[in-house]
Specification:
546 residues; Dipeptide-binding Protein, domain 3; alpha+beta; 11-stranded mixed beta sheet; 19 helices; Dipeptide-binding Protein, domain 1
Length: 546
């Protein structure tokens, strides 16, 4: 019996030994296979690219979709009358065949349309289908509907492949607005015009990709085999949504996804930038379209005094915020118009500089302030935006260092939703806010800030854009220039109007531009053709695995 137990023990030992050997072998094999899969991802899935993002989307219906990432999806799923030539700021026809003919009064746009285009469901595209799509965008009343509803009087087909749009008022930037992702063509057989009627999990357009599947954390696209334009280089695009930047970062770092877009933390971006040489990662960086500003309440003393506003503009130190808060991942901005537009003029840099304590001190003394009678101000920021807090803290430290007790800044915060509800009530003297444009044109950076539809120099703005921002800035000259810029069809003369508007901004200081965002796209070494456009869209059709 003892021998039996001894022999059984030996057998168990041998079984355990060989079991461990097999397990180790399998682990090595598994690890090797995993590494091999990452290294040979192109060979394993040559016709499929996976893009990861932390973005969230609530709808794919272009008449109700209003966000940055969903804009990229619609950009690839649909076509618009106009788009931007890849890699440029040049507007070009897409479903149109030429730029519009504009009537002398600037109110009527006649647009010739492309023939031979079909929707993803096989429905032919023509002027009636395009008119249906734009009218649906307006009449269904979704989040972005105001973009056309405020401007358009009538949309109608005037021939089988000719569309005529009549505006309520002249608007020279209208072709740029027609490149907005949401004003794409949709099939009249898949949608209906009815207020409040949307299809959040469907899309039937004319783009290079069609919608294949919508899941809780994934959207799948496949190349549309009847697309009228250049064929996509990759058959399938999978969009994988991650719950956190950390998960997105790890998925890209380990090769589980091919492309990453929106949004990684500052340190994670730095890590990927550092791995370009050793890992072969591609980091595509572009100046973003979003801008950050201080809005100054001109009805809130002492901000009703020009010298005070100018002093604040002079003491702001943008490069310091760029370095200490964002580690270089923003660009200092010296106008409401970003550097990506050719009408940009750095008026605040020219007039005030950065961290110009001497000028700020001179202006404050001129306004009657001193160490014994300091300027006291409240600076508000959004409590749920960590970078706003860091920027506010850094700016307060700079002001204390440079001006001592001459200017005292008290920081206060409030949650975003509450802030947006109370801006036009004049609740905040100074507020740090951001702005993302709806379309790529200087009008969408000037008019939403400086226009006032009702007011006077005595009462300030009572209705209009500056009222909604909580600035209450009123300038008859600004209103005149904005009106002229919207009517002016000549690009050179239009540019001069925007130069004058930017000069007026620096002179009156109702807003202080702070920084411009940067956008990042990350691609694995085996991905070719990845790009980030000036409109922050990612073209899927140009990407392929090598």
């Amino acid at each position: 019996m003892a021998n039996f137990w001894r022999n059984l023990s030996k057998v168990r030992s041998l079984v355990q030994f060989w079991g461990l050997v097999c397990l180790a072998f399998l682990l090595v094999l598994g690890c090797s296979r995993s590494t091999l899969e990452m290294e040979n991802s192109s060979a394993l899935h040559p016709n499929r690219i996976t893009l990861g993002s932390t973005a969230t989307i609530s709808t794919l219906d272009p008449a109700d979709a209003y966000g940055k990432f969903v804009g990229t999806l619609l950009y690839n799923l649909g076509d618009r009358l106009y788009t931007y030539k890849l890699g440029t700021q040049e507007l070009e026809p897409q479903l149109a065949t030429a730029m519009p003919r504009v009537s002398p009064d600037g109110l009527t746009y006649t647009i010739p349309l492309r023939q031979g285009v079909v929707f993803h469901d096989g429905t032919p595209f023509n002027a009636e289908a395009m008119a249906f799509s734009l009218n649906r965008f307006i009449q269904n009343g979704g989040s972005p509907s105001f973009l056309l509803a405020d401007l358009v009087k009538e949309i109608k087909p005037t021939a089988e492949y000719e569309l005529t749009i009549q505006l309520k008022k002249a608007f020279a930037a209208f072709p740029s607005l027609l490149a907005f992702s949401g004003v794409c063509a949709v099939s009249p057989n898949a949608y209906e015009i009815k207020e409040g009627e949307f299809k959040p999990e469907a899309f039937v357009g004319t783009g290079p990709y069609r919608l294949a599947k919508v899941g809780t954390d994934q959207v799948q696209l496949e190349a549309f085999d009847r697309y009228w334009g250049p064929k996509p280089r990759t058959q399938n695009i999978d969009i994988q949504f991650f719950s956190s930047p950390a998960n997105l970062f790890n998925a890209f770092r380990t090769g589980a996804i091919d492309v990453a877009y929106q949004s990684l933390a500052t340190e994670q971006i730095n890590t990927l930038q550092q791995g370009v040489q050793s890992m072969g990662w591609q980091v595509i960086e572009r100046s973003g379209s979003g801008i950050y500003v201080l809005t100054l309440n001109l009805k809130s003393p002492p901000l009703d005094r020009l010298e005070v506003r100018q002093a604040i503009a002079a003491v702001i130190n943008r490069p310091l915020v760029q370095e200490r808060v964002f580690q270089g991942q923003i660009e200092p901005l010296y106008s409401l118009v970003p550097t990506t537009l050719d009408v940009h003029k750095p008026v605040f840099q020219e007039q005030y500089g950065d961290g110009n304590a001497a000028k700020a001190r001179e202006l404050l003394v001129q306004a009657g302030y001193s160490e014994s009678n300091p300027l006291k101000l409240e600076l508000w920021y959004r409590s749920n935006v960590i970078n706003d807090q860091l920027a506010a803290i850094t700016s307060r430290a700079v002001i204390k260092k440079e001006l001592g007790g001459l200017m005292q800044l008290e920081l206060k915060s409030v949650e975003s939703t509450t802030a947006y509800k109370n801006l036009d009530k004049g609740a905040y003297p100074i507020f740090l806010l951001d702005w993302s444009p709806d379309f790529f044109d200087p009008d969408n950076y000037i008019q939403p800030f400086m226009e006032c539809s009702k007011g006077s120099p005595e009462t300030g703005c009572e209705e209009g854009s500056s009222y909604l921002w909580g600035s209450f800035y009123y300038s008859d000259r600004a209103n005149q220039l904005i009106d002229q810029s919207r009517k002016e069809q000549n690009p050179a003369r239009r540019k001069q109007l925007y130069i004058e508007l930017q000069n007026l901004l620096a002179q009156d200081v109702p807003f202080i531009p702070l920084w411009q965002s940067k956008d990042y796209l990350f691609a694995q070494k085996w991905v070719e053709g990845a790009s980030l456009e000036v409109t922050q869209k990612v073209p899927f059709a140009t990407m392929r695995k090598t």
